[in-house]
Amino acid sequence: MPRRTRHHALFDKLRTPRKLPGFLKAASVCVLVAGLLSPLAQATPAAAATASNDYCGGQCSDILPPGENGNATLAQVLLNQAFGIQPDHAEDQLGPYNNLATGYPTLTDAKINTFFNDSSFGVASDQVASTESPAGRSDVTIVRDKKTGVPHITGTTRYGTEFGAGYAAAEDRLWLMDVFRHVGRGQLTTFAGGVASNQGLEQEFYRNAPYTEADLQAQIDNAVANNGTRGQQALADANAYLAGINSYIDASDSGRYFPGEYVLTGHKDSITNAGTIDHFKITDLVALASVVGTLFGSGGGGEVNNALSLLAAQQKYGVTEGTKVWESFRERNDPEAALTVHNGESFPYGTKPSDPQGEALPDSGSVTTEPLVYDATGTGADQSASAASAAATATALSSAKRGMSNALVVSGKYTASGHPVAVFGPQTGYFAPQLLMLQEIQGPGISARGASFAGLSMYVELGRGQDYAWSATTSGQDIIDSYAVELCQDDYHYLYHGTCTAMDEVEQKNSWKPTTADGTAAGSYTMRVWKTKYGPVEYRATVGGKKVAYTTLRSSYMHEADSIIGFQMLNDPDYVKSPQTFQSAAQHINFTFNWFYADSSHTAYYNSGNNPVRATGVDPEFPVWAQAAYEWQNWDPATNTSDYTPASQHPNSIDQDYYISWNNKQALNYTTASWGDGSVHRGNLLDDRVKKLVAAGGVTRSSLVKAMSDASLTDLRAEDVLPDLLKVINSSTVTDSTAAAAVTKLQTWLTAGGKRTETSAGSKTYANSDAVRILDAWWPLLVKAEFQPGLGTDLYTAFTNNLYIDETPSAAHGPTGAHAGSSFQYGWWSYVDKDIRSVLGQSVSGPLAEQYCGGGSLSACRDILISTLKTAAGTSASTVYPGDSLCSAGDQWCADSIVQRTLGGIKHYNISWQNRPTFQQVVEFTSHR
Fold first, then answer.
1. Which of 496, 540, 539, 537 is nearest to 637 (CA)?
2. Confidence band (pLDDT; 50, 70, 90) for 402?
3. What is the rounded distance in angstroms from the CA atom of residue 200 to the CA atom of residue 204?
4. Average pLDDT of span 52-59
5. Which of 216, 241, 261, 764 has a CA-to-CA distance to 673 between 20 and 30 Å?
6. Share of the chain above pLDDT 70, in %
7. Distance CA 303, CA 614 (A)
8. b/e map of 537-562 (b: 16 or more CB within 10 Å)?
9. Listed residue (273, 259, 265) closest to 87, CA to CA
10. What DSSP line would sit under 357-369, residue for residue?
């Protein structure tokens, strides 16, 4: 029997129009709703499962906005669109999540679950909302709790447990899962509509993972074959999970309580029920995994952009000095960078070779981006489509990946209880429904509660076990290399080990027409990728006059399914019993993540990913020739496998005093692919606060949550760069009244903590709002005035292509976009910090190769800062915050606010900005098995 219905959606750029049912009159909506509600039935209450295997002592909590319910029938979609009515449990975690921003200053341990859910195992008998035996099975039950509606799946057989997990996933995220599998196959526009954002989304993923059905199946076969009994178990689990999903599809179709998006996008008829919802198959899971891996776990890329900025630097300064300047901005191993492993251990990876070999730098002006879209018609060829395609290409080819996520973990040596405390979670953006879903799974060989990506929830991917918890942040070390394949015969043949070899052509033809959900006019195009043994072609150029194609080779390419073994281990209470076994499980995850662990006595950290062993002398920062001498060691192009660095060479640690991570540098000499790991990083916001807590001792769950929340509201530029900017300005008396007034406002804000926070809960107005506006306006002006004169326009522009100048909460550029919460990951704050400190005569470790502000003159630098500050002070709020489809121009709070991006028909209110994980745990285990 159906318990409730709801709605799904999927991802950053897929949206449905806000005024979806605007053509309907309220009365007709009510009539339609009355008819559509009739098939619904309620499940009956049942007893809760026992929780004798829970060693957290009621001190484990979690939160995942907006709510667990991500399905909505057509009736519920229409009620939401017309009257704002929410389906049960679609929005009940959004308020507590939002309220922490103003409630954290008075937080105590007793109040934690005012802002989080109790994540203890099981459901108290008086809190059971419903239970069901999916498909009438006797070997599994799904209990839903009253507060949040989270599914608690308990099975007596392994098959039944995984069947229940699949059934619950479809109950909560069917539409979202369907969207995801089409994104992973490059078929989103055909499935969900041709709006420009959908075009951009499918293009972004297809460029990097142009898999055929045979490719997807091969990845499953290889993962199973290479992992013994665990591989066989993973296959059995996946098949049971799929059976559960498909059982729900059949039940919801015949009972007519399937997600309403299927009607609104033309896949089902609301009157006759004609149309189909395709069953899921095992290759769909690989397509889903490729989306998640590409989004959050594939560090690297950007080698061609690196080459272009290096050439610009050498052209400006000459080869020797230009290389020195480039390296100083690259900050591969900045001595002032915040570190996760901060005990002095070194883990060399991706470092600069003393004698680089095989570099294939392009001839000046020869680089062109490889086209992806061909034969576009209608709205596949209009201006919006072109803009979306350009943005997708830039994102796909950049080294600035979606990082996000943070972690704060403190050893029991420094806590009040003597047990470790952790506050951690992934920062995966905000969507309606959310990309992640909560669940508890208890069955033979599985015992865990937490979050999983929709459609991949056969195991908990981030969460807690019986006496331990784990989480991850994106790490971003370089597992992607760019090769220059020399062309022969024509543009579609290349030399492979001396033989002229044809490229493989892979294409996906998509077309769309208007639907109720997406009124975009008809259009079509073909996405075409040329593949080599060294990966897909991304650019074309000449090197020394020779025509080449630049490809990208990713170690996780054709291995999207491999990580399932690591997640299986993390869910197995008979496997994970200690920090060491946790690290062993994480070693089976080939995506690039930082993994954190806490139990009642120990903490641990491990950096995962298949780090290829490169040939001696190869610099991973730049393209190299596609020749045997420069390939990964023992690389087999047929399977895309090679030698990988051993686990001991990955940053790892057990029982360090504390760990922090906010996508910062992992350890000494461990280079990440993206730029910006310098003296100022958002990781400093966590490190500074946790370091103080540890120094004082007596850390509690609430004090660690406070540290996280305080950092989540802080403007990084204000806390770590503004003080030195003001030192320069105040190095002599400020006589200009406009500048003086601006300085006073900035200093007042800085004294108050430099936070972007409401005057009071719900005011939708920032305290020190004018100072916030001034800094937002000033930053891009001062960066350009500080650096462009010295670097020159060409090199300055090239460096901005490597690293964005700014990433404020309202910024629409960058890998996250506006209204996404995650902020201050990428920017020039470290460059400004080092340069200004140098001009002030302060000691700078790892300084920039030149002084830029005012050419190194304090007085000239001061003049630049005052001049740009005056311009900023006079810039209106409507210019700084120009407005968008949600916010009117000049609405500062709204510009920063977080939006649950609609991936289906259910809308939610926007909330005040916080820079924190989307799914978050607070844990402190009291005992151990």
1. 496
2. low
3. 6
4. 96
5. 216
6. 93
7. 15
8. bbbbbbbeeebbbbbbbbbbbbbbbb
9. 259
10. -SB-PPPTT--EE
